[in-house]
Amino acid sequence: MPVPRKRVPRPGCPFCFEELPRPEPLAGTYSLDEVLGGRCVECGAWFVVDETGKSGGKAVMDLLVLLAGGDLQRALAYNRDADYQMKTVPWRATIRRFGGRATGQALMQPQAWVARLVGEAAGSRP
Ligand SMILES: [Zn+2]
Question: What is the pTM of this model?
Answer without folding.
Answer: 0.78
